[in-house]
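<instruction>
Derive structure tokens from the sequence

<record> Sequence and structure tokens follow
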Amino acid sequence: MFQGIKKILMAHDSSLCSWYAFEAAADLAKKYGAELYVVHVIDTTVIPDIPHKDLLIKPLKERAEKLEKELKEKSKELGVEVKYIVKEGKPVDKILESAEELDVDLVVLGSRGLGTSGYLLGSVSTKVVVACKRSVFIARRKDVPAASKL
């Protein structure tokens, strides 16, 4: 039996599509009185395992800190409280892991549909939709063309 939406996880990658999805997630959180978590994944899988790897990750961590400040400002503007989480690793894995750890009812993602393995959705959003054990909501901006139109 459907018990309502009490916890929402939104995955944010700093893109315009993620900001749109954040607004959708915030709107849903307000309407349902749900807790809103935002996860930002620093994709360390694309960084070679070399000495001083931390120098390559440092600007990504700084961007994550900047995103947290921006999210706090935007969440105040939207009238919703946000809990921000930063993880390192493969984005799909970390989004799925976060959904399970937090026991969320809904995962919200943005999609541009530009990923190589995702036909109408991006590759991350496609993989999350397929693998997630939770309900998934894809927020897509109307002004962003689907991959089939590119």
In short: The domain at 7-149 is CATH 3.40.50.620 (Rossmann fold). Residues 53-78 form the longest helix (26 residues). The mean pLDDT is 90.
